[in-house]
Amino acid sequence: MTGYAAASAELDSGSLTLELRAVNSRYLDLQFRMPDELRVFEGAMREAISAQLQRGKVECRVNYAARSAQSGAALNRDLLLQLAAWNKEVQDALPEARTLSVADVLRWNGVLETPTASADELRTALLDLLQETLQEFSASRAREGEKLKDFLLQRVEKIESLREGVIPHVPAAIAAYEQKLIARLREAMQNAEDERIRQEITLFASKIDVDEELSRLASHLTEMRRILTQGGAVGKRLDFLMQELNREANTLGSKSVDAEVSRSAMEMKILIEQMREQIQNLE
Questions:
Q1: Residues 46-78: pLDDT tens digits?
Q2: Which ranges form a coiled coil (predicted)?
Q3: Which helix (H) or strand (E) holds 138?
Q4: pTM for the full model?
Q5: Domain 3-69+119-140, what fold?
């Protein structure tokens, strides 16, 4: 299922930002974009994401901005004293030499010390931030899931309506065939027997009998409603039901001898395909 969430956290040593983006995929595919110094935590992050998500191509992007020297920095007093000693030593040896200015001292590498986080601090902060982001991510997916649920239930109702519309057409098709068969046999055989006619009609009726297909369609649609109402991780179960619905619609179309039944079977297949595409969005 598609989704997006982002969160940030402020540490003494810098700021962390984390984004989760997901697009449709039948399976869970995780990709990480993060600084090399945080790569050591990828395994723990992968485990945390896999515990909550089952489907989707998910990109996890992490940025870490360390504090600048001007923010929260402290003077390295040992180095400062060393610079003062060097400055005096140079002045004694070379009286004409320019003395170090405050700006020169502050630009000296290592004079300003910025806070650094330990590996444990970074790990804890990163995993806490990931959990916060996952909560928002799951909430956004849940909101989208409700919209998709309505979309799917609308298609289920349309298929059910088509199924009910097919039911009276089968007896009508048999009755029409019976009249044609009687007329043709009696025209070809002046003494056509009623038993022969009944046999032909029975054979025809068995070929176009779709009671089982219509019954299984009703069962699958009922199961879809139950799964969607129940909620939770439903994507894989609905994938299976799409295969079953498509199989019944195909059989219904292949057995059809009535234009209206053929049209209904085609409409069903279109609706099933629409549902199949959207079910890729469900967890």
A1: 999 999 888 788 999 999 887 654 545 667 778
A2: 175-202
A3: helix 119-166
A4: 0.57
A5: Ribosomal Protein S5; domain 2 (3.30.230)
